Amino acid sequence: MLKLTYTEGSFYLECLSLSLEEWVAKRAILSLRIGKPFCLEPSTASFLLPVDVPGVEKLRMEARRVDGEIIDLSGCDAEYLEVTLRGSWLSDGTEDNVGVFVTMMSDRMEFFLHKLWQESQVCTSVLSE
Fold first, then answer.
1. Hey, CA dihedral for 116, 99, 44, 79, is it positive or negative?
2. Spatial contact of 108 and 65, defined as CB atoms under 8 Å apart
3. CA distances from 88 to 1, 72, 97, 99 (A)
4. Each residue of 21-77: pLDDT tens digit?
5. pTM for the complete prediction?
6. N or C terminus: fewer CB in 10 A for the chain?
7. b vs e for 72-101, b when ≥16 Cβ sit within 10 Å of the residue's Cβ?
8. Burial class (CB in 10 A: 0-12, 13-18, 19+), 124
9. Are 84 and 48 in contact (CB under 8 A)?
10. Is 36:70 a contact under the CB 8 Å cutoff?
């Protein structure tokens, strides 16, 4: 399962070994126990990957071949590729853009996408130094 966490100023992607159902059940129980609202709805989430990260072309091929209904790739500009995923958005029900997005794809695709995202973070931090 891929988990994308959106905060006011950042975004973080994780690859988890739990099934989507297990993770949602645990979050629902946590919300009930702490008395916080819990809103889960079908949605999409997007993030950018630099086109010069090694493996982006392989991602394009794999996305078309394996998980075309869950992942969509489109070029933003000469420097970035937009990755759009279909899955579920979990939030406290407010209208802000803070929450968690979860989706499931093949284990191979999840791992590969997570690896590319991690590599893009390393490239971004090196460029900003």
1. negative
2. no
3. 11, 15, 14, 11
4. 999 999 999 999 999 888 999 999 999 999 988 998 898 888 887 756 889 999 888
5. 0.86
6. C
7. ebeeeeeeebebebbbbbbbeeeeeeebbb
8. exposed
9. no
10. no
Q: Which of 101, 76, 97 lies closest to 87, judged by CA? A: 101
The answer to whether 24 and 40 are in contact (CB under 8 A) is: yes
Q: Which amino acid would we find at residue 38?
A: F
Question: What are 129's two structure tokens?
Answer: 């130094």
Long-range pairs for 28-35: beta carbons < 8 A, 24 or more residues apart? none
- What's the structural domain count of the chain? 1
Cα–Cα distance between 15 and 76 in angstroms, integer? 25
Instruction: Judge contact between 115 and 48, C-beta under 8 A.
Output: no
- What's the half-sphere exposure (Cβ side, CA atoms, 13 Å) at 61? 4
Structure tokens at 21: 């159902």
Alpha-helical segments (H) within the chain: 20-34, 56-65, 107-128
Tokens found for residue 105: 């794809």
